Amino acid sequence: MKIRILGCGPSYGVPSLNRGYGLCDPTNPKNFRLRSSVLIQDKGINILIDSGPEVRIQLLKAGSPKLDAVLYTHEHYDHMGGADDLRTDLAEGQPLPVYLSDTAIPHFKNILDYLFRPDTQNKTFDIRRIQPYHPFQVQDIKVLPIPQVHGHGLSMGYRIGDFAYSTDVVRMEERAFQALAGVKVWVLGVVTPIENDKHINVDMALKWIERVRPQRAYFTHMGARMDYETLCRTLPDYIRPVYDNMEIEIK
Fold first, then answer.
1. In terms of C-beta density within 10 A (0-12 exposed, 13-18 middle, 19 or more buried), how is residue 205 classed?
2. Predicted TM-score of the model (pTM)
């Protein structure tokens, strides 16, 4: 399995229009962060998690892979806003399967309202409803959705074999931690080193990683206080920050 980090930035990206690079070194290209998204490639199958506003650029850099499915963590614009760029050439065949929770489906239809009007026959996306802890198949790949608290709303994390992706989360229930047991690689959204009411901070991430005990853990969705080299110096060796276009292999 190969994990490609398409983007590892927060909702505003780094640099942002009003915050710039913040505390991040602007001379280090690993601090340039597009909105968070990952591409999972296994058994010849390509699964995208989230399609933020820069997804077209991200997928072009990844070689324009033909997607087999898209999994959405939640409905916020930085995770769903680029969905229109995923519209496939209708001559190629089947609509693209997109997996969403009950709360995310209406938002997805809203941002693509021109595809889902009563007088429009949508041939682009095949919306598939997911439920917490109910595994589903993307062809030969089993996917387990794991519910998460994200501020006043909910998001969805995903476990795919020995890999787990948990971003935009501030709390998880005991059953969620149990579902993560045994993962080899865990990519975890950590926006900031200070307390936040919608995202875990660095200290909480370290506690969670110690509890789950993956072989390797990575920080993504990092904001302008999260300088790459500073994190590399201060984190344990088996925990690293990611960067855009980074590849992680799981054997």
1. buried
2. 0.96
